[in-house]
């Protein structure tokens, strides 16, 4: 198909996820039209700024609700979103990422909606966004931030999607894995740039990826490091490179009380 021309080369897992996502979104668009999403009571809600909270925070911690992943299978299926969101907010997290992909991560839009009803902190819809429909969905279900993954999008798509999100009052976190993706994606309609430390080809994780790319990210964007952050020392090693945000998901979710784990982590970090 013509719209596939010039698409970035993806790893096989990303390829499968994106192919499934295109089918899923096409089905949902048939069922629920855009104008119906726009009638959501949450559509007029003012979104708190995650980027501001990160720059003003001493911890910069972004927590996550994630039941499973392709690389780890089951992480934790026994927790409810409400308890996790309230626990993270009480712990002092700057925001929370909510996985909304069902097939690969066990998440849903209902998780996002429940999290929104349970807390006031900024929420990131963590999803494989390949259509503007999903951005309107994110707003309708209570997200404050959307994730755009450079590896699966063209520059034109990143421009269109980020501009739409900002016009709806949401912020944009662009995720990159390497220098090529960074240079392709830089534009004013982004708020935060996240470096994913996971190699998409090998699935190996190295914090050196964040450290190497940090000098290439302009200061106008809030820098976030993602994946493989497990200890306070990991964050302390990244802070000198200018990182203000640190996405920690599995480390807390694998425990019986993610909120308490996050609180202890933040206390140690700020101690």
Description:
This protein is α/β, with parallel strands linked by helices and 271 residues long. The chain has helices at 12-31, 34-37, 50-56, 81-91, 109-118, 132-140, 155-167, 179-185, 208-213, 232-238, 250-253, 258-270, and strands at residues 61-65, 68-69, 73-74, 95-99, 123-126, 145-149, 171-176, 192-196, 222-226, 243-247. The chain has a single domain, classed as TIM Barrel (Alpha-Beta Barrel). It is 41% helix and 16% strand. An 8-stranded parallel β-barrel has the order 1-4-5-6-7-8-9-10, surrounded by 5 helices. The longest helix has 20 residues, at 12-31. It is globular, with a radius of gyration of 17 Å. The termini are far apart. Mean pLDDT is 93; it is low at 1-5.
**Total discrete domains:** 1
Overall pLDDT score: 93
Order of strands side by side in the largest beta sheet? 1-4-5-6-7-8-9-10
User: Which value, in Å, is the CA radius of gyration?
Assistant: 17 Å
- The end-to-end span amounts to 55 Å
> Would you state the CATH class?
Alpha Beta
Give a quick precis of the structure.
With 271 residues, this protein is an alpha/beta fold.
Give the SSE layout.
Layout (H helix, E strand, L loop, with lengths): L11 H20 L2 H4 L12 H7 L4 E5 L2 E2 L3 E2 L6 H11 L3 E5 L9 H10 L4 E4 L5 H9 L4 E5 L5 H13 L3 E6 L2 H7 L6 E5 L11 H6 L8 E5 L5 H7 L4 E5 L2 H4 L4 H13 L1
Parallel strand pairs: 1-4, 1-10, 4-5, 5-6, 6-7, 7-8, 8-9, 9-10
Antiparallel strand pairs: 2-3
Helix pairs in contact: 4-5, 4-12, 6-7, 10-12
């Amino acid at each position: 198909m013509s719209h596939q021309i010039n698409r970035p080369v993806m790893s096989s897992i990303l390829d499968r996820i994106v192919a499934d996502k295109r089918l899923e979104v096409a089905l949902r668009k048939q069922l629920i039209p855009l104008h119906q999403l726009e009638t959501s009571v949450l559509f007029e809600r003012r979104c708190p700024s995650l980027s501001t909270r990160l720059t003003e925070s001493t911890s910069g911690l972004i927590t996550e609700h994630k039941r499973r992943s392709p690389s780890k299978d089951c992480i934790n299926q026994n927790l409810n979103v409400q308890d996790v969101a309230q626990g993270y907010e009480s712990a002092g997290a700057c925001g929370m990422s909510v996985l909304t992909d069902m097939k690969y991560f066990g998440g849903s839009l209902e998780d996002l909606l429940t999290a929104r009803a349970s807390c006031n902190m900024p929420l990131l819809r963590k999803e494989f966004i390949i259509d503007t429909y999903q951005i309107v969905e994110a707003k309708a279900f209570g997200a404050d931030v959307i994730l755009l993954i450079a590896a699966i999008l063209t520059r034109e798509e990143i421009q269109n999607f980020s501009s739409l999100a900002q016009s709806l009052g949401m912020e944009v976190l662009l995720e990159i894995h390497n220098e090529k993706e960074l240079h392709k994606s830089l534009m004013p309609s982004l708020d935060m740039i996240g470096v994913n430390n996971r190699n998409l080809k090998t699935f190996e994780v190295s914090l050196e990826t964040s450290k190497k790319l940090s000098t290439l990210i302009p200061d106008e964007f809030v820098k976030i490091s993602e994946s493989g952050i497990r200890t306070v020392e990991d964050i302390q090693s990244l802070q000198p490179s200018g990182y203000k945000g640190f996405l920690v998901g599995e480390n807390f979710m694998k425990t019986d009380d993610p909120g308490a784990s996050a609180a202890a982590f933040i206390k140690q970090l700020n101690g």
